[in-house]
Each structure stands twice: as structure tokens, then as C-alpha cells.
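Quick one:
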Amino acid sequence: MPTSIENIASIVATQSKLVKQASIAYLLMDSRKLTFPGSTLFFAITTANQDGHVYIKELVQKGVYNFVVHTHFDTSSYSQINFIVVSDVVEALQKIAAAHRAEFDYPVIGITGSNGKTIVKEWLAQLLTPHYNIVRSPRSYNSQIGVPLSVWGMTSQHNFAIFEAGISQKGEMEALANIIQPTIGILTNIGTAHEAGFFSAKEKLAEKCILFENAATIFVPHNLVQDIPSVHNQKVITWGNSPLATLFIQQVVVNNGQVELTGMFNKGTKKLVAPFVDKIAIENIIICWAILLHLGIDEVTIQEGVLQLRHLEMRMQIRKAQNSCYLLNDSYSNDLSSLALALDYAKQQAGNSPITLILSDFLNSPAASLVKVVELLVAYPIRKLITIGPNLSGLFVQENPLRKQGCAIYCYNSTNEYLSVIEVADFKEEFIVLKGARTFEFEKINAVLQLQVHQTRLEVNLTSLANNLKYIRQLTGPNVKLMAMVKAFGYGSGSVEVARVLQFHHADYLAVAYADEGIELRKAGIHLPIMVMNVDAAAFDALVQFHLEPEIFSVGLLTEFQQFIQSQALHNFPIHLKLNTGMNRLGFDMDQIQFVCDALKQQSDLKVQTIFSHLSASGQPNFASFTNEQLANFNQAAESIEQALGYPVVKHIANTGAIAMEKKFHLSMVRLGIGLYGIGAGKLETVVQFHTTIAQIRKVAAAETVGYNRSGKLSRDSIIATVRLGYADGYSRQLGRSKGSMWVQGKLAPVLGDICMDMTMIDITDIPGVQEGDDVEVFGSNLPIEQVANWAETIPYEILTSIGQRVKRVYIQD
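Output:
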């Protein structure tokens, strides 16, 4: 619901410089996600590593003319721009959202807790959609910035809101409570998450309950009701296995993939069947059941809705699809906010591929919302739109702005109608976004389009990868550039997909091993500078054609490349000089530095972008003196070259191992390789997880053996599981014969016998309840890759880069 810039300025009650009228509909913190410049208000938020004020000039050039800035920012250079000047930009954002929330008097649910917030929110939204027009937090927008953005989505067209609030330390909830102002509060549970931010579990509970201080009704687990702070004239509803609970769970029966719940509510017996059997899902569905019963939803409607629920994949996933396509499946919900998020991510990851959107109707949405759908889609480079549902079909069959800008539009009334005519051959080298409400069963479309490969998969969490990049920048500071290594197929994770994330987050340089790798990135739309580390004369033409920058490491290569550039009549072609300071692999030796100086001074053919070397034992204390000697030799040689060149040059020697060492190793740039994927010292997040599934389970007597060469010898009657993974997938044969293990149902299962080409056998005798089809973690958050590498007597680099191309890569955005 747009509001005037004058009104917003009055809310934050501070100085402002308003020179023109403006109607604000969109709040923006990330300059890369700009969609509607004329109606956007940009908040120049400053963090430890980013200063939003540096993007103001760029945004002004793109048409933005409304900004909230800190008092230290000089606005005098901008005469035709609106500025709201504040002492705390984040606080101003929160005040604006709180004032917006106060304009609406329909029910607002505020959810907090250690776990389950997002699942409960999404399930409640699905279950209540037939009765209300709901606005809710997109995905897991529950932070100090995410909550204001969520609440800003409230409009007069809605009549119910559900927002989640997450905190990690004391003092954070008050601001979120002021923004959400819930009329109904939900506490899902109290667990161990974010324990470090609180003195005790009791303190954490008290902080979370600040959210509910002014709510009329609160829902809490019965086992916590005695511990929550005093309740002031609030109706407290509890659930649990105590007869004193408002919803007393009398019986939980798991039967044939479902759970049958029996409970007492308001002195009446209630029954519910849910399509889940795991403990966490059952707990979450009981919370939803209690709320629906309190809201007066009849039991038949509740039962019908619950049977349609499914486990939600709360992360956007990108998979390879048929005919060289990519498929972004974000079809667990559909509303304007989550659609915008999905399209933002598609624009980031699509590169040069055209974007195809398959979109379902928005359930229970007024006609005005459909008009906003058109406005939103026009702002994105969508080449093909396929709509599913009568409302969108009626909207898009007529002439509209999207069709006028060249988008092909196809409309179908139902998913089954579309499935009856879908042709996989119609999709080629496209980036396909699936965005649909749960009831439209888009998983059927996903099954048709997805590339059918075996169930072993490598999950690459692109959010964690970006977080690792941010963490390294915290270590180096804002003045040190960053070169990211994406060689060897992005360490097995996918060079193009990883490079797109790095480009989005403003890495300074990429590095690949060979020109072919750089060419692939260029063809995928990567425009960052790319250094090629292993170059010969055969690649010279490609370097020029695709704007790739070679690493020059020898006298012969320097001479040969300089002659080539002269023959092409080119000038100032970028190169990188590699010096050998002790690695003894590639690079100019110290006694060749004078030749380099003589060859490069007073010439205009080549422009040295960086000078670098490689530490051979970084991060190993027993070689500290040698590492320091390498740095000293490098600095001396680089200074000589820089003086000969007559201009400053970026210098780098620190790889991941050295980044965590003293800052003297950072120089003017660092090279981030394995640390990008969460491997190394410090607070790095796990990026890559390797999973497979169980193909078959069998009982094997103690007298028998397992696998080739009868190498799997049993000492007892055993239960053996065969998993869909072998050495052709990159699982080292070194892990056979009980050297390695896999993670199954929370326990380690030893590998039995020799690793086969396509299969591996594991011992699950001591792990109850394992079934065929169950997931198996090869390495990841439960079984670190470092441990697997240790078992295989190798290093994590080799484990990652050995994973076969037939293994399906799944790219995840939290």
C-alpha cells in the first residue's frame, strides 16, 4: 500500500531533504534487487563489511530518488534527490514498518520459538487460506530487517497476517514485537538454537515471550506454561500430553505412513489424521491443530486441509533439467512476495539463459492482486510465461504489457490440462521457474521437466557459500580485494552456478585452471575478470576472444605472449605475474626478476594486473619460518617489479590457509579456494553435502561374506544395506573394507567389503528402523568431509573434485 515520502519522513521524526513528491511502495536494502526505481525507498544500511551509502550514486543513475541515509552522509551533491537523514538507518526502517502495521486492525499472528517457526507459518497459511486472505513472512524473513520487510506487505486487501520473529541474543525481541504487534502469539518450543546469545534457557524464553506481551491470545507448549513470564489478562492455550492442556493429546498412533491423533479440546474428543510420521512434523501439526480449533474451523475442513499438507522444502532448489535447462522449484507457496524473491534469484542465476515462468493462480486473492502480478512480471526479463488456473488464464489471454514486451504466454485452466499437452522438447537451454500454490501439484510438472538421473546427489548450499564469502571479508576488511577459485568445475560443485553467486556478491576476481573453464563462464554470462592459471600458446586466441587474463609464469611464456599481443596490435592486455618463492611448481624464480622488470618496463603491450605467489605450507605452525621467508622474498621481488612498471599493482599470496593467519599475509588481495566451500579454520558454514539412498536391505549370516573378492567378512549375523553410490561416482575405493562409514538415521554405518563401480554396502545391524529408500549422508553437516578424507588418506580437495558428473547437483538457496 503506497504511502508518501512526506508521511514516511514524519514517522522517523528527523531531518529530511525532500525536493519532490513521491509515492513509496517498495523498501530496498540490496541495490542488486532493484525492480521499481520510481517507487522505491532505499535504506543505506551499514554493516561491518558493507556501507549502503556507496551504492547511492549507482541507484540514482538507475532512477531511484528516495533514500534513508545516516547523518554522516553528505547529500549536497544531489540536488534532485529526496533524503531522509537519521542516526540509525535500521531503527528508521523498523519505525516505518511499525507505523505501517498500526494502520490495520485484522488478526495478526506472531510466531517465535527455537524451531518450527517457518513450517508452522506455512502450514497455517495453507490451512487458513480458504477462510482468509493472508499476508505472511516470505520464506524465513524473521530478522531485524526481515520482519519490517514482511510487515510492509500488509494491505487493506488482506484480512489476516502471520509473521515469524527470530532472535539470537538478548535485547532483540522488543523491536520485533513493536513491529509485528501480534494479536495472537505462538511459541513453538524452546531448544538449543542460539544458546550462546543468552545466559540461560530461562532468559531466552523470557526474551522470546516479549513478542506476546500485548497479544490477546497466546499459544504455548503445556510443559512451558509454568515458565513463561506473567500473563496479563491474556487467554493462554496449551497443547501437550497433560490432561491439563487445552488440547490434550491422548494418543498418537503411527500407521502406514500416517499418524492418527486423538485429543480432548473444550471437553470434546477430537481426531485427526496427518500424512507424517516423523516426530518434528507431528509436533508442528499439533500446534496448527490447536490454533485451527481455537479459531473455530470445523473438524471436517481441518481434516481435509491437513491431508493435503506435505513436507515443505523451505529452500529454493536449482536442478539440472531436460535439454540443458535449469529448473528452480519454488512451488510450496505462491504469493507476490515469494514470487518476487524467486524471480530475483532466477535473474541472478539464469545468466544468458532465457527465463521461463510456470505460475499458478494465487488462491483467494482479489482482482487487484492479479493486476499487481502483471506489474511485477513486467519488471523481469521473462521470455515465456505458462499460467495454470482460471484466474490467471482470464487475465493473460487478453492484451497486456508482458505480451507487448515480447513474452510468449500460454494459459491453462489446470495442471492436468497442461500435463496433457506438455512437450519436453519445447524447453531448450532455458532457466525454468516453477511457482505454484500447493493445491496445483506442481511436483507433477517438476517430475516431467527434471533431468532423470540416479538418486545420488550433491547438495550445494549457495546461501552458505555466500555467507562464507562474507565471513572471509570480515577477516580481511573492506580494503582487501578477493579472488575466488572456481577451477576444477568449482571444486566439483559447478563452476557456473558458483560463479554466478560470486558475481552477485561482488567478488573482485575469479580464477580458473584452463582457458576452457573461463570460456564456459563467459558463455554463461559471467563478466567478472577471470585469471587463467595454466596457459600455453594454443589458448592465446581464446584469451583475447573471451577477455580472459593469463597467468604468466616463465620467461618463455612471457616472451611468447608479448609477441602474440604485438601481432594482434593490442595494447595494455591484462596479465598476472606468478613468482616462485618456494612452492617450486610454477613461477618466475628470484634470479629471473630482473628479466621480468626489463621486459615489462617502457612497453604498452601488456598491463600487469596482479603479482602473486603461492605459500606451500600456510596454516602449518611448524613451517612458520619458511612461510615468513616466502612472504619476505615475495614482497621484495614484487616491489622491484612495481618500481620498474611505474604503476601500482595488486599483490596476493594468501590462500584459504593463510587468510586466517596474520593480516600481513593479506596484502592487497587474497585468494579464496576451499574455504569458500566451508573447509578450513574459523566460522565457515558447510556448503556441500553428498547424499545417496538405500537400494536394498538384506540379512546376511555370520558365515557369509559381502562384495567382490569376499572382502566383507562378517563376525556376526548382520543386516546389510546396499546404497546407490560407487567409485564411478567418485567414492574412493580407499574407503572400503570398513575404513569408511556413512551416516544413516543418526549413526555411523561402516562400509563393508570393496567399493563397487555403482554400489557400496554398509552395515546397519545396530541402526534400527532403516528402510529401503532411506537417505544416506556420505559427507555433510553430520559427517564432515575432513573425516572422510582422513579415512581415505587424502585431502578434502580430492574428495570434492572426484565426484562424478553423473551425480546430480542440487543448488539450494535458503
